[in-house]
Amino acid sequence: MTALGQRMLSAVLVVAFASLYMWHGGKAALFLSMMAFLMFTGGLLLHWFGPRSIHIRRKIHSNRIEAGEEVRVLVELEFECRIPLLWIILCENTPAGVHRKLIFPGTRRQFIYQYECSCLRRGVYRWDTGRLYWGDIFGWNTLSAVTTGGTPLIVVPQATAWGKGDSAEFAAMIEGTLSERRNSQGNRSPEFREYQQGDPLGRVHWKSTAKTGRLQTFLPDTTDLASLGILVYEGASGYEVKQPESLDAPAFERVVRAAARWIHTAERDDIPYHLWMEGGDKSYGSQDPWQQGPFYADDENHGLDKLAGARISKAQSVPISLRTEMLDRLASGSRIVVLTGKMDQVLAEWIMSAIGSGYRVEVQLTEATQLGSTDTLMNGLGYESLSLEQLRHSGVPIHSVTDIALSSMGKAEVTDVGA
Fold this sequence. Notes:
single chain, alpha/beta, four-stranded antiparallel sheet, 19 strands, elongated
């Protein structure tokens, strides 16, 4: 019942019991009319002088956590109220569910308490608007006010380095990719040269200038040329939408986890990389400035943010227009890792065009049914299998990543941990 309905019902009861007393008299009718009047008056007082200027501040140790990690939230509640309150209930719509906190404020107007959100899966979350409830001792009159939300939280996929449990094939493959970058960095020419007419003074290398006695300047920045490209394919045709119940995670989640491991290793070794997904690309490197916004300030795992919001597209395949745009800033000869559930026509054509442009492409699949003998592939698995054979004949390494096990997480929940 709404607050207006409660006041109308209270007014009707006051009039009814007062009429009963005037017509019949008696102590019982007088008592009932007095109680109805007190209930009506209390409701008006709660409405006129209830909490105002409600402020909620939430503090968490980081706006970015890893999937499955617990996050503790410190809530500071403050409001103004002219009358003592018997009770209030603050309901918050957290990423893990609704959290309710019962408080007996009396004359206090500031409160601090904590709760934990656990078992959150990857994604980008915000606290939704909640409500603050208050009322009388019996709950006859209950009122509420909307509280603010908007606190951001991003949950990135679990990203661990390639460990001893991984196959030797994967270990050699990633080590080969990263060692090439290390060797190229170790053998490249110095990053400064003698000053030339027109060089900005802001690029002067003062230490080298002092040593040589000649004005030296930094070479133009070339950090936009990455040695590693990671393509996470989001087209619906690259995955089986209905996964068997026996699998621990969908094929797309395995793709995201594999991409996170590549990113983790690249950032660990200070190797610039490009992460490509449907809708554009985002580039990172050891010398790139931190991204701006609530999710990027002072954090070292910003390369995983885009994976947090990865979703299988409603479209069957990635738009054709991305074919050339995705390779504009990648140096010819660089290595590209393509992660998908299974091969489709658009992706196979993109890989062939990348090979023709001088890039080295590796494919990692999370649908094991596509990997098998040549005879099996040719006898009825469709265009996808023929595409794999074509890529193999073109020298494209194709591997399975179905052995990547995602940690099992239960249902997301929020738990009160006290003040």
